[in-house]
Amino acid sequence: MSNGEIITTSRSESENGIRPLIISDADTVRRYCPSFRHLLFGFEAQDISSAMVVPPASEIESFLFPRVQIIEHPVLKFPFFFFQNHRHLLSSLEKIKPSLVHCYGTPKASLANSIAAHFDIPAVITMDSARFSVRSRMIINKSFNKILVPSNRLAEKLAQKGLPLEKISQVNIGTFADESCACYSSADRLPSMIVLGRFDKFSDYEPLLGAIRHLNVDGYEFLVIFMGTGAAERQIRSFIKSTGLVQTVAITPLIRPLRQVFRGCDVFIHPCSFGDFDPALVEAAAAGLAIAADKNNAEEFLQDGSTSVLFDSNDELSIYSSLQKLLDDKPLAKSIASAAQNHLHSNNSVSSMVSQLLQIYSQASAD
Could you report the per-residue pLDDT of 151-184, keeping only the tens digit for each? Predict the structure, then answer.
């Protein structure tokens, strides 16, 4: 679609009263923070009024989007105030009068369903994982008009898990790809790699740490930043200290904005995907980092040898070989990063994402 066509469509939808209400949990907001900003920016640019229901202290900067109303729920964080919190939420939403509920992630599917039922409006859900409870599957099957996924790989997994294929639609995560490529853009600095995640289990990161150790022993000079927190952080720090990697590996809390952090790095390592879709990979590729990822990822734009290097996340030697390739062959790393960035330019624009969502919202409202 041309820009003119997109603007015409969105204005038509706005005149028809499309007012999406986005609902999400704290973890999804944290992971999708850049994506939500892009989405809200797209709605703003197309004159679409929207609102969000998110937990208190979520990473949403509402002041950036004056037409987006942010509602924190629950207001009272006590176990016996469910009904009071729910009444307060519905009262707040009465003033907004949403026309459709868009739930991101399964943790808030039940809440999204109850709001849609209260206002007698359609509901859609975006899913980035095939890991969900039987209760969630029942709610999704019964209550959501559309199931949105960021990749066809995930759509196939959801269908295998019992979700109706006819309800599933693919909507690529929209982003703004940088014009320049970050990978090895500065010859004056050491090669730098970044690992972004929640460090819940040491075993998920042990093969990667072993590969980093052996690269260090073999004389490679580079830096690796583990950015995040989790229960396994102490074990990771202990491994770094005991193996003499203190000058090579650093652990830091999550730093915002991510894009700015990525622009100072060369390689993005994604060691364990569990088959889920991770929006951080889109942001890293958009910044022009070379991606080294678990071969079981759900991101279709990651093709081994062309837009990424893929490895077996449980095989230390496989990880070692992939990282060694990116350190030894810098032109290859730059080529991989540039190819992924170009793919996002063509297939993951924010305008295309917004246009697709508005069409789906209209279809859901017409059902």
Answer: 999 999 999 999 999 999 999 999 999 999 999 9
Query: Residue 200 CB: number of other CB atoms within 10 A?
Result: 15
Same structural domain, 14 and 141: yes
Do 14 and 144 belong to one domain?
Answer: yes
- 200 and 168 part of one domain: no
The CATH number of whichever domain residue 249 belongs to comes to 3.40.50.2000
Both tokens of 64, joined, read 């950036």
Residue 228 φ/ψ, nearest 5 degrees: 150, -170
User: Alpha helix locations (H) across the chain?
Assistant: 3-15, 26-31, 33-45, 82-96, 109-119, 134-143, 152-160, 202-217, 233-242, 258-262, 279-287, 316-328, 330-347, 350-366
**Coil, helix or strand for 32?**
coil
How far is C-alpha 48 from the geometric centre of its chain's CA atoms? 22
Is 187 a domain residue?
A: no
Lowest-confidence region among 157-161, 270-274, 338-342: 270-274
Angle between helices 202-217 and 233-242 (to 10 degrees): 20
User: What's the pLDDT tens digit per position in 96-140?
Assistant: 999 999 999 999 999 999 999 999 999 999 999 999 999 999 999
Same domain, 100 and 127: yes
Task: Yes or no: say if 108 and 23 are a contact pair by the CB < 8 Å rule.
Answer: yes
Q: Look up the domain containing 260 and give its range.
A: 192-346
Amino acid at 348: N
Contact 220, 254 (CB under 8 A): no
In one-letter notation, the amino acid at residue 258 is L
8 contact partners, CB below 8 Å, separation of at least 6? none
CA distance 143 to 124: 9
How many distinct structural domains can be found in the chain?
2
Distances (CA, A) of 79 to 85, 109, 230, 235: 10, 19, 25, 33
One-letter amino acid for residue 354 of the chain: V
CA dist list (Å): 15 to 9, 10, 328, 351, 359: 10, 9, 56, 19, 14
Report whether pLDDT(10) > 90. Answer: no
Q: Which residues pair with 125 in a beta bridge?
A: 103, 147
